[in-house]
Amino acid sequence: MLVEVPEAQVSDLGKLFENSEFPAIDIDQALVYSLPLVNRFRRIIVREGVLLRSGNRWGEFAPFWDYGPHESKRWLWSAVNALTEPAPQIVRGSVPVNVTVPVVSSKRAAEIVEQSGGCRTAKVKVADRGTELADDVERIKAVRAALEKQFGQDYRIRVDANGVWSLAEAKAAIAALNEAAGGLEYVEQPCKSAEDLLELRATTSVPIAVDELIRRSPDPLSDLPDGCADVMIVKIQPLGGVSTVIDLAKKAKQRGLEVVVSSAVDSAVGIGLGVRAAAAMAQLPHACGLATSQLLKSDVSRQPWQVRDGQLEVREVEVNTDLICAPSNDDHRDLVNRWSQRMRDVAEVASR
């Protein structure tokens, strides 16, 4: 579903920037999308957000619903920056990506890997509510078998716990999952707090990556204690835009942290921004988490993102205008009104 925001409301949205910290911009068009997922992911089955057009450029504003106005401000900055900043200078024409495996059955996990378009790296979600460690172990084993079938020993497996484990749970889980994977590339956000990550990193040889710990921090690097992580996950929308992420990656390298450019389950527009950011970085030691279009049943672009040989090619994204409809029923109007209100709430915070 791709619903056009009425012209009067678009004009009102443009006025939101006049008395806030955001630069004044002319919004020519606003579209609200609602895209169903193939499998439940992050406890959602539909991904929603707003696309903003100024001239021939598109930005995206799509904070998850558990983000309040203050936390959503950087997401709106990302959309504004996409419309106003110069494009980064790229140094490569394509970027390596991982396949993302949600919390699904072992059989389905293997199918996802087999249908990934040649991804040699798999990111496997673990520690989901209502599941057991044994389920995660079996999913990892299935993913490993599928990768070995295609690539022999030339593959990587990483896991993401979204900060769910306690310190004791993390120690036990990482040991079991590392064995099942034949060696993990890294474990992403195993615990919520920096204190737990510091202790955990001192007791395991598996590299630790941080995501939520920096994504929801007002000052990601300054608030990250030395020694609590090896890898930093950077996402365009949550961190404020392409140039912000590129600058953050440079600073992270100076602190000895490797960087992985990833997606917040963006639409095709957001994926395009992530691909450009990754393509502008001098080094990409790890596959990027940007192949999340595979999680969606449909998307907003005329040409869907396709992974080939485990890579996404840098290209422009053309929004599929054939999908656009006017808000002709209650569901459409509710979708438009909810997202218009979210933008108003964020702009109000930014005007204080």
TrEMBL record:
Give the source's domain of life in one word: Bacteria
Q: Which reaction does it catalyse?
A: (1R,6R)-6-hydroxy-2-succinyl-cyclohexa-2,4-diene-1-carboxylate = 2-succinylbenzoate + H2O
Q: What positions does the entry give for Mg(2+) binding?
A: D160, E188, D211
Q: What's a Pfam family this protein contains? A: MR_MLE_C
**Active site as annotated:** K125, K235
Q: In which pathway does it act?
A: Quinol/quinone metabolism; menaquinone biosynthesis; Quinol/quinone metabolism; 1,4-dihydroxy-2-naphthoate biosynthesis; 1,4-dihydroxy-2-naphthoate from chorismate: step 4/7
For this protein, the Enzyme Commission number is 4.2.1.113
What are the Mandelate racemase/muconate lactonizing enzyme C-terminal domain coordinates in residue numbering?
109-207
Report the enzyme's class at the first EC level: lyase
Q: What UniProt keywords apply to this chain's record, in alphabetical order?
A: Lyase, Magnesium, Menaquinone biosynthesis, Metal-binding
Q: What cofactor does its activity depend on? A: a divalent metal cation
**What is its biological role?**
Converts 2-succinyl-6-hydroxy-2,4-cyclohexadiene-1-carboxylate (SHCHC) to 2-succinylbenzoate (OSB).
Q: Which family does it belong to?
A: Belongs to the mandelate racemase/muconate lactonizing enzyme family. MenC type 1 subfamily.
Q: What is this protein called?
A: o-succinylbenzoate synthase
> What's the name of its gene?
menC
